[in-house]
Every structure is written in structure tokens, then in C-alpha cells.
Amino acid sequence: MDFFHRFAVPHPNPAIYASMVAIGLTVIAIVAGLTYFKKWGYLWREWLTTVDHKRIGIMYLISALLMLFRGGADALMMRAQLAVPENTLLDAQHYNEIFTTHGVVMILFMAMPFIMALMNFVVPLQIGARDVAFPRLNALSFWLFFMGAMLFNISFVVGGSPDAGWTSYFPLAGNEFSQSVGTNYYMISIQIAGIGTLMTGINFMTTILKMRAPGMTLMKMPMFTWSALIANVIIVFAFPVLTVALAMGTMDRLFGTHFFTTNNGGMDMLWANLFWVWGHPEVYILILPAFGIYSEVISTFARRNLYGYKSMVASMVIISLLSFLVWAHHFFTMGQGAVANSIFSITTMAIAVPTGVKIFNWLFTLWKGKIEITTPMLYALLFIPLFTIGGVTGVMLGMSAADYQYHNTMFLVAHFHMVIIPGVVFAMLAGLTYYWPKMFGFMLNEKIGKLAAWIIAVSTLLAFMPMFFSGLDGQARRMYTYSEATGFGPWNMVALVGALGLAAGFVLIVYNIYYSTRYASRDISSDPWDARTLEWATHTPVPAYNFAVVPQVNSIEALWDAKKKGHVLFKGKYEKIHMPNSSGVPFIMGVIFFIWGFAFVFAIWPLVILSTIGIFACMAHRSFEKDHGHYISVEQIEEIEGTETKLRGAN
Amino acid sequence: MRSKKGILVSLLVGIPALLVSGCGNRLTVLDPKGPQAQTQADDIMLSIWIMSFIVIAVFALLVFMLLKYRASKQSKDYEPPHIEGNPIVEAICVGIPVLIVIFLSIVSVQSNNKVEATPQGYEGKAPLVIYASSSNWKWHFSYPEQGIETVNYLYIPTDRPLEFKLYSYGPITSFWIPQLGGQKYAMSDMVNTLHLAADVPGEYMGRNANFSGKGFAENTFDVEAMPQSKFDDWVKEVKATAQPLTKEKFDQLLEPGHLGKATFTGTHLDFSPPPTAENGGHNHGSSNSNEHSEHHNQ
């Protein structure tokens, strides 16, 4: 009984029991469905063991959309609880767990995989490569992310969710004040996913630096590839800090060390420093690829080259450097004194300059263009005003004396939602719609897509603008309830309406996927948007090897010049293509990591040792394995290229 | 489509106007009752005005581009030109933001020094030192000069600078009285100093602004600012009527939970001193620019 007691949720309620049932039923349904339709072999061969960057990208995409709804459900519950004063829908403990998991899920398990999805799918195509530099490592990265996310999610029904905020400040997150295993889940699941991300960073840096098509110099790379390169450089510098911080936090919780506790020489603010040394650059890891997507979308639909390419690149480099120099603005109120606050205040506000350059460059890309408002373009156009509001409130927060009044209030919550939603989420939805035909061979419905974009944009304003006011009116973040006398009620009611609108918008996107899957025409060209860069020069759907002949690049907009100026992209004959073999090891290693993490959370040491041995066995297996990949013969290439051309009517 | 954009524009331009006019009641932070909060409110309003200018500029440009360069407004055979960039345009796009950031930086540095020092207009007066410590989920206020202690409420005189010494008996908390000035962290391993002052008598809301667990939402305290004479009367009354604070009683108060208000004679500083007195703490050299506090970074 004692054994089972450890896995019980400390504060059970109907929502948790309902989730248990739902999870159980979903698992049964999936297993039964796969068995009935005899899809186990297909799933294993085509997806679980794949090392193809396009399929890995699609798996990231599916995970991100699932997590969007998990994090969204948390958000709705939070807004519902706060909508009226003295609400008793949720108790304090439940509310604390929900805002903690909302933050972690949205940042690390929704936004991160979303950018990974687009990066995985687009970058190799955009640079004219056949795969990433380390395809098998790429698969392992995905499975580590996925298993980290799953481990984090089961905390809701097994053992209890983390409840110390997504920042998990010590000593609150220490054993003394957070006694459930929730924070263990936080430390270990983020660790597992984070290792995956770090490997992705190394992989994509290598891919972009070493595998570009002939002729594509650094200053001829499309903007999304540039943004991905910079984001991955930031990953490689920032994520090791998180790894170390989480390891120290885990040791504090499980092995009785005192890095962050306040006795025996520990320092609570050390955690805050380490967390934000990673956490602030993390913001730019998310936003830079989003900027890259907007650059592609805006220049495509303005039918013009991107204005100020060089200043775009320079601004991203400057942002990446500054992103490491501002972390202390997350705790201006720590008592670090006027001098330190002044320095971090200035570095923070300085980021507005390169960011402003980018906004103006997009505006001037529209100048003298021939603007066509498609769904991706609509997201990009709505992004500009909404993100500007988020951005300028960031400058306001950067003034440290004034920050004493904004800190920990809803003003801050409003600010970062107004940058992350229009900045990252809109970009990912734009990218999803934009690249959907390349991924799946049909277009999403434009009418439904545009309606969803409008609903999401208006709802974003409704949901987050009131928070600027309630923040200035003294509403602290993370309060599970407030009295009527505070007057926060009406602001929060409007925010609930906005949150419901956002939910409706996201549901509409899912409906659009369903609707378009059923009814959309499959007869589309490989370049349905009349785009400008190399990823649209392949067939749709993209063959495993991406390009039958490696393209020759002359300019930033290789495909556009091929279409307009008659440059020849593909010179030479078909030759046999070397491709990596699929492998089950990354998936198996991911599963073992999941077991390892679970055992670690509950301190089941024999299982920890066993699974550690398993992880090393997988690595040993790889080092002794003789796998030289396989070749696709010229005949096969001719057949694939011939059929595709016939089937799709592509160029 | 254009009408929707119109709604957006009016929404966004309307916001600063709404803030200033205040819609009847002014927002708490923008209704300052002391010099520190006044500095902060001025900074906030200044930055709102400058930032609205930027938002409007971006909006105007966007609307102009969309109205002028829509595909539907152009001839079918129009081919957009290839434009790499323009040094003059880019210089303006970098130059103006740089100037704005420089201006705001100067304001920010000046305000920083103001809020980290004795409030303006109160320089000559000796500050009233109050030790404000938090425990799960209460606030303990020790008045060493008066030799009294309160729980969950704070009486302060209006004509004196206040020097709060902040620390915590549990998780990190943040001491915040929005109408008197911005917040600062209270931590268990160092003492932070927050300089405040109240210009006007009145009742103000105070709270812990940093999430500290289950009881966080109710982790509030009442603040009452009053003239010195009334404050002195209150102290006298406390000394005459309140019970002394013993170590046993204080340990009992530290137990996690919520309490109403309480008043004691004596302070806990004697038997449960703040972290600085105990081990040197981690004083970041923050607190008082007048004080030249020692650096003991462990």
C-alpha cells in the first residue's frame, strides 16, 4: 500500500480522475486501432524508426499541436478561475500546479517543438541538402524531447504536478516547501528534453555551416536559415547552463546537497541567475526562427525581395549577443543596487534597436510590392502591430526603476504574452499554413484559415490588453483569487472572453486541417505560393532524398531567379544517392530515457541503475554497429522523378 | 477588412488616452502617494507616451503600405522592383530608436538612483527603520526605535523617510506597497533595503508580490499613513496595551498559515536577528547609497 501511495496524486480532484480515464481510454483506442488496421508495422517502419528530417519535422509538429491544447486547457482553467472575484472553481494548490505546467508546456513542449518542426522540415530543403548532418542524432533528439514531454505530462495523474512556477525559484522549489514529487518531474523531464534540444543545436549548426548547396555562401542564405543558424548558436551556448542548473536542482532535491537552499552556504538567487542566464536567451531561440518565417512569408507575398537583408542578418547577430547580457532584468528587485540595475536596464532597452530595424525592414519589404493577403501573410501582417505593442511594453519593463512597479504583476504577464503569441505562435501558424502543401501535398482552406487568424488576433488583444491595466492596478501574477474590492474583476472577465476566443481560433485551425484533408484538391503544383527559395524547387511530396540533383545557387532567392532570370538550378545527370538507414535505436533509447526519468522522479534506484545501463548499452551498440547506409540507384531516382512529375503535374 | 483594421487602430491609439484619463478611478500604480511612487509613475507615463508614438508610427506605415501596395490595386503586369536597401532610410530606422533608447537610459539611470536613495524632499530627516520580514504567509513588522512589533499591518508617519529592511523566514517574497513605491525581494539569506515615504495620510494596500506557495494570494497587509503625532499616540497605546513578544510566541507565529492582525511590545530582532547580523549574509552592496554597506559575498 505504501508503494502505491507514492504514486498517488497528493491533491486529487475530479479533473485528475477524468484525465486518468481519458488517458486510459485514449491508449486503449490507439492500441486497438493500430491492431485492427494492422498499422503496427507501418508505424514502426515509417515513423518510429525514421531518420528522415521531414518526417521528424512532422512528428515535432504533431507533438507541438497536441501540447498546444494541453497548455491551452491549463490557460482556460486559469482564466476561468480568475474571471470573477472569490471564485472557488479551483483551489490554491490546483491553480499553482496549472500555471506551472502551463508555462513549462507552452515554452518547452509547445513553442520549442514547433520551431524544431519547421526547422527540421525547411532548413535542409532551403539550403539544398539531402538531410541534416547527423540524421540519427536528429531522431534521438526528437525522441528525447518527446519522452521528456510525456514524462512531464504524466505528472498530472501520477505523483502530482510541479507547483513552484515555471521558473521554480528556490527555496520554494526545494524539499522543505515543495514536498510532492512534482518538482522532481520538472527537473528531470526538462533535463531529458533539454539534452535533445542541445543535440539539435549542434546538429543544425553543423548542417547549416557544412551542407549548403554549391554557390550558397553565408550571405546568400535565405533568411529563415540565417535565423535558424543564430538560434542554434544560442542553443549551444545557453542550454548547457540549464543542464547544469537542473542537475544541481535535482541533487538538492534528491541527494541532500545545498546549492540553492539557504542554509549550509546555499544561495537561492544562484538558481534565479542560472535559470535566467538560460531563460533569457531562450526567448530569442524562440523568436528568431519566427522572425525568419515572417521574412520568408512577407517577401513571398509582397512579391519582392526582402528589404535590408544585410541589416536583418546584422540585427540578429546583435540580438543574439545582447540576449546573454540582460538576464538580470528578470530580478531588478533582487536588491542588486542602482549601478547593476542601470547597466542591465540599458542593455535591455538596447535590444529594441535591432528588433525595431527588423520591423521597419518588413514594412519596407511591403513598399512598392504587390501585396497578396493569404493566410500566412495575414498572420505576418497582424503580427506587426500586435508584436509592436508587446515590444514597446518590453522597453517600458526595461526601465528598472519603473520595473519595481511592474515586476511580478499582470503587466509583465501581458507583455510576454503579447510578444510570444504574435511573435512565436502567429509565426508558427503562418509557417504551418505556408509549408503545409510541401509537407502533405494539399493546401489548407484559405477562408477558414483567414477567419481563424482574425479570431486569434482579436482574441489575443482581448485576452492580454486588460492585463496591462490590472497589472498597473496592482494585480500580482499567480494569485489564485482576489477580493471584489480590488476591482480586478471586469479586467479578468474580458481576459476570459479573449481566452475562449483563442481556444475557438485554435479549434478552427484543427477543423481546417480536417476539412482540407477531406476536401482540398490534391492537384497542386510543387510551388503553389509562387515562392522564392529552394525548398519550393523540390517535388511535392518531397522524395526521401529531397533533390535528385544537388542545386547550384547564385543568389539569396535561388528559385525566383531560376523562374525569372532563367538560371539553371539543376545541372548534371542523376547519380546514385547515398542515404542513411532507418534505426530503431533512437526510439528505444528514448523509451529507456523515459523509464530512467520516471525512476529518478520516484527515486527507485535499482531501476535507475538498470536503465542507465540500458542507455549505455544503446550507445555501445551504436559504436560497434557497421551501418554504412544505403544507395538509391539511378533507375529508382528516374522512376520516382518520373512518377512524381506525372502524378503531380509539377514542373 | 479595412474596417477591422480601423477597430484595431482605434483600440491601440485609445489605450494611452484611456490610461491618462483614467476612466474615473486612477489605476493604483498611477495614483502615487509618495515621492518614490511618483518617480515611478512619471517614468511609466513618459515611456507610455514615447512608446505610443512608436506604435502609431509603425501603424501608420503599415496601413499606408497595405492601402497603397495591395495586389488588387495594381495592374496585372506590375513587377515589384528589386531593392536591396537604402542607407538613408536605414540610418533613420536605427538612429531614431537609438536616440529614444539613449534618452530613456538617462531617465532610467536617474530614476534608479532616486528610488535607491532617501526620497526627495526628505533628505534632512532621520529615517524610521522598520524591519519587514515575511513568513508563510504573514508579514512581521519590527519597529526597533519604538520597541514594538506588528503582524500583517503597518502604521507609518507621513513626514519621515522610511527605511524598510526586508528579509524572509521562508521562500522569496516581494514587499510591495504600490502607492508608496515599487517592490523589492525579501530573502532568507540577505537583508534588502527599500526607501519609501508617504506624502499623504491614508490607507494603502500592501502585499507580497512574489509567488510563495499555497497561501500566496492572501499574503497581504494593510498600511495606514498618519501624521507623526497620531503615530506617536498609537505607539504609546501599543506599549500600554499589547502583550510582549516572546521567543515561544514568535516561533508559533512562524508556523505556516494565515493570521489576522496582531500587535506586540518588544521585537523579534533580539532573539531571532535578521540574516545580516547572523552571518554577514549576501549583501550585494545594494541597499543604501548613503551607507556604504560592506560586501560579504560568500
UniProtKB/TrEMBL annotation, chain A:
Instruction: List membrane-spanning regions.
Output: 15-37, 58-78, 98-125, 137-158, 185-205, 226-249, 269-291, 312-332, 338-357, 378-402, 414-436, 448-469, 489-514, 587-617
Where it mainly occurs, coarsely classed, is membrane
Enzyme class name:
oxidoreductase
Matching entries from Gene3D superfamilies are given as:
1.10.287.70, Cytochrome c oxidase-like, subunit I domain (1.20.210.10)
Q: Its catalytic activity?
A: 4 Fe(II)-[cytochrome c] + O2 + 8 H(+)(in) = 4 Fe(III)-[cytochrome c] + 2 H2O + 4 H(+)(out); 2 a quinol + O2 = 2 a quinone + 2 H2O
Iron found in the keyword field: yes
An example molecular function term from Gene Ontology annotations: copper ion binding
Q: What superkingdom heads the lineage? A: Bacteria
Keywords carried by this UniProt record = Cell membrane, Copper, Electron transport, Heme, Hydrogen ion transport, Ion transport, Iron, Membrane, Metal-binding, Oxidoreductase, Respiratory chain, Translocase, Transmembrane, Transmembrane helix, Transport
| All residue ranges annotated as the Cytochrome oxidase subunit I profile domain in the record | 38-554
Compartments, as annotated in UniProt:
Cell membrane
EC no.? 1.10.3.-
User: What does this protein need as cofactor?
Assistant: ferriheme a; Cu cation
Instruction: State how the cofactor is bound.
Output: Heme A3. Binds a copper B center.
Q: Does the keyword Ribosomal protein apply?
A: no
Q: Which GO terms describe its cellular component?
A: plasma membrane; respiratory chain complex
Concerning its family, UniProt says: Belongs to the heme-copper respiratory oxidase family.
Quote the function comment for this protein.
Answer: Catalyzes quinol oxidation with the concomitant reduction of oxygen to water.
Q: What is this protein called?
A: Quinol oxidase subunit 1
> From which source organism is this entry?
Effusibacillus dendaii
UniProtKB/TrEMBL annotation, chain B:
- Note the topology in the membrane: Multi-pass membrane protein
Q: Which reaction does it catalyse?
A: 2 a quinol + O2 = 2 a quinone + 2 H2O
Top EC class per UniProt? oxidoreductase
Location in the cell: Cell membrane
Q: What is its EC number?
A: 1.10.3.-
Q: Name one GO cellular component term.
A: plasma membrane
- Biased composition range(s): Low complexity: 278-290
Q: Name one Pfam family in it.
A: COX2_TM
Q: Which GO terms describe its biological process?
A: ATP synthesis coupled electron transport
User: Which stretches does the entry tag as region Disordered?
Assistant: 264-298
Query: Domain Cytochrome oxidase subunit II copper A binding, which positions?
Result: 125-237
Top-level taxon: Bacteria
One example GO MF annotation: cytochrome-c oxidase activity
- Could you tell me which NCBIfam families the record lists for this protein? QOXA
Described purpose of this protein according to its UniProt entry: Catalyzes quinol oxidation with the concomitant reduction of oxygen to water. Subunit II transfers the electrons from a quinol to the binuclear center of the catalytic subunit I.
Write down what this protein is called: Quinol oxidase subunit 2
Recall the taxonomic lineage recorded for the source organism: Bacteria, Bacillati, Bacillota, Bacilli, Bacillales
